[in-house]
Amino acid sequence: MPMTAIILAAGEGTRMKSRHPKVAHKLLDKPLVWWPVNAARKAGADRIVVVVGHGADEVRAIFANDSDVECVEQAERLGTGHAMMCVQKALGDFHGPTVVLYGDTPLMRAETISNLVEHTKAGHFACTVLTMSPADPTGYGRIKRDAEGNVLAIVEHKDCTPEEQATLTECNSGIYCFCGRRLSENLGKIGNNNAQGEYYLTDMVGIYREMGEPVSALLATDDSELLGVNSRVQLAQVTKIMQRRINGELMASGVTMLDPDQVWVGAEVTVGRDTELLPQTMLWGNTAIGEDCVIGPNTRLTNVTIADGSSLEETVGYDTVIDSGVTVGPRAYLRPGTHLCDGAHVGTHVEIKNSTIGEGSKVPHLSYIGDTTMGSGVNIGAGSITCNYDGVFKHRTSIGDNVFVGSDTMMVAPVSIGDGALVGASSCITRDVPAGALAVERNDQVMIEGYATERMAKLQEQKARSERERA
Ligand code: UD1
Ligand code: CA
After folding, report:
1. How far is the C-alpha of 191 from the C-alpha of 198, rounded, in Å?
2. Residues 6+ apart with CB under 8 A from 449
3. In the list 5, 20, 140, 240, which could disulfide-bond 45, CB 3.0-4.6 Å?
4. Does residue 299 line the site of ligand 1, with CB under 6 A?
């Protein structure tokens, strides 16, 4: 039977005090709602439906490139039961195990979803409720059981008597697995005659109970998976838990961290064995780091691929490919389209954009290299830059193999420098340099013997005179 996951994410989240819908706020590098969607994906969901409402367009945009995610709009937020009715209306009846998750509950693990589904299938239950026993159950729906321990109903906190509020401590996590067929047939029975005038999905449990359909409750093994985010303080707490979870898995797989509390790694990042992540390192997007690398301190990489044995210190990088044995930084900026080939070196205060730096080539100090193809074995002197922009168009610079560019050279693109050429320091290169040539562009050096000594003597004399006059 195909499995469906429905992620409820229509709520506003007023306590976030934000112009954006709550579930669009980021946990590490992904929006809150992305996490339960991904957990459902990893648990093998065949169909993933996100119920959007508040800020619907912004939430839809999160999944614009995910063909496996469908969004259904709940225009009016009339309760969790109503949200499910909107899905049925938009997409037709439910089939197979149908899991309900919340968009603001990002720590849910795929294994927990799988267990919930297996439990429901094995017992042929109409519904299994995932439950928890939090230290403070205020606000949660309470699980009511009969003398034999069978689940009778879920009663919302606001609909409980004071005695029930005090004694019923097992709570509804809001996460369920339903049998799709029976849910389709009976969802319409939910009414809104309760304290909040809402259609409660929780009412399904009591409805099934009266019909004699088997219902089950499964106590969660790790309550932290059920933490919801209602405020920015809770967002920070959940972020800390996710950071520890991800970093714990990385360390277990052979990654070293000087201080895991100061390393942030996104959901889809991979890091190889014996790589060391130093403090204040952030790795986002589809960054993939090989083995035996040293990354950080103070480094932020987004969509950067690095082969084995490279080191990056105090570097910011986006959409960059780095081969093996490369050294970067401290204080380098690698912009989209950068490719650093094996053994290349990019040093301090260097910016590279949309350029290939060939094997073993070096750009060690204070340079900007943009829109450039550079061969192997090149040395770029300190302070040299490519002038790639004429105010309207970008132009390319081509540098051959084994070129030596002296310090403070301007290469005004479009321009090319042939293999093995030598460019004298402080040249402004505006014409192509043939292979093996020397190019120098600077005035002859003027020399006047004794000039500096005489000038200094004159100035000292002037100073002494004016001091005497003032006295
Ligand atoms: C719900 C449960 C409660 C449970 C608690 C756990 C109901 C009636 N109650 O209460 O038993 O203990 O979760 O956190 O289900 N949503 C929609 N559309 C709506 C209403 C809600 O998409 O019309 C979404 C919200 O964005 C949120 C989730 O459903 O992600 C839960 O809604 P909320 O109103 O916060 O339910 P609770 O009062 O917390
Ligand atoms: Ca010059």
Report:
1. 8
2. none
3. 5
4. no
Q: Domain 232-439, what fold?
A: UDP N-Acetylglucosamine Acyltransferase; domain 1 (2.160.10)
Look at residue 207 and tell me whether its pLDDT is greater than 90: yes
Question: Among 80, 99, 136, which residue has the most ligand 1 atoms within 8 Å of its CB, making it the best to mutate?
Answer: 80
Nearest to 372 by CA among 395, 336, 350, 398: 398
**Would you say the CB of residue 296 lies under 6 angstroms from ligand 1?**
no
Domain locations along the chain: 4-226, 232-439
Flag whether the pTM goes above 0.85.
yes
Radius of gyration of the chain (CA): 32
Distance between CA atoms of 357 and 325, rounded to whole angstroms? Answer: 13
**CA distance to 74, 89, 453, per residue, from 195 (Å):** 21, 26, 95
Please write the tens of the pLDDT for every residue from 253-305: 999 999 999 999 999 999 999 999 999 999 999 999 999 999 999 999 999 99
Q: What share of the chain is helix, strand, coil (3-state, %, to 5)?
A: 25, 30, 45
Establish whether 345 is a catalytic residue.
no
Q: pLDDT band for position 12 (50/70/90)?
A: confident
